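hiii so um. not sure if this is the right channel but i have a protein structure encoded as tokens and i wanna go backwards to a sequence. like what aa goes where. can anyone help
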């Protein structure tokens, strides 16, 4: 009997939101912990993100909703939806809005923060759209504030698969990141090396792709260095594979030799 065909990956996007550490200026990244009842990788720490929906594609090409821009790759060009999805999911899961107002990052006051919190709540309940929000708030989605840095596809052996585009972005001034307390149960700023150390100690669960993204981030001394390393570069698509070793499934990077 022929093996079953792999599940078609679902298009998705995630944001590695960065800020300098207060001590030495090294990069910190904001992560959220998925709810224990989630139907996909429950309980793990991830970067804010999620699946692309039709409205994301429309938002990228509708006048006045997103900043017009040229992308290095067709997959991240406006109209594919990955940039709008990244911004929408970041706002829903972390409460941070990547947007421009008259060409600058907005500096929300208390009244604006209260309105944004209400928009975020309504978005989470599918009672409005982010296009309606930016129109009402005189904003435009900052699709050009996202730096494309990685593309991972879930191994073919998995029953649920994603084709995920990872973006880097700087934390906007005058905003605060906070998990949504619905699909996520915790949120924190963490140094990549610290997250990896906690993962090795067993108290910071990660999935394979997230672990590797953190390893890449840990190599940079500043936020500017991390962003600069990805600007103008077309990342290779990473499709890990799964093998069985000693009775357990092991995920390997492309080209990595099977365990002995």
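sure thing!! here u go:
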């Amino acid at each position: 009997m022929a093996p079953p065909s792999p599940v078609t990956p679902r298009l998705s996007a995630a944001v590695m939101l960065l800020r300098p550490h207060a001590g030495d200026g090294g990069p910190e990244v904001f992560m959220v912990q998925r709810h224990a009842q989630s139907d996909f990788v429950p309980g793990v720490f991830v970067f804010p993100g999620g699946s692309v929906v039709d409205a994301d594609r429309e938002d990228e090409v509708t006048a006045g909703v997103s900043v017009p821009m040229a992308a290095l790759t067709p997959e991240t060009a406006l109209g594919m939806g990955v940039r709008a999805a990244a911004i929408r999911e970041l706002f829903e899961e972390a409460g941070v809005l990547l947007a421009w107002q008259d060409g600058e990052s907005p500096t929300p006051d208390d009244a604006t923060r209260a309105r944004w919190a209400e928009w975020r709540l309504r978005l989470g309940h599918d009672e409005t759209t982010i296009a309606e929000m930016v129109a009402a708030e005189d904003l435009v989605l900052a699709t050009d504030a996202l730096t494309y840095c990685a593309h991972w596809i879930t191994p073919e052996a998995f029953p649920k698969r994603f084709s995920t585009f990872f973006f880097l972005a700087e934390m906007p001034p005058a905003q605060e990141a906070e998990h949504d307390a619905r699909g996520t149960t915790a949120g924190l700023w963490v140094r990549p090396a610290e997250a990896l150390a906690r993962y090795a100690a067993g108290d910071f669960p990660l999935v394979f792709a997230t672990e590797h993204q953190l390893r890449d981030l840990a190599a940079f001394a500043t936020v500017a260095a991390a962003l600069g390393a990805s600007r103008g570069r077309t990342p290779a698509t990473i499709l890990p594979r799964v093998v069985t070793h000693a009775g357990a499934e092991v995920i390997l990077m492309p080209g990595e030799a099977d365990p002995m």
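oh and The chain has a mean pLDDT of 93.
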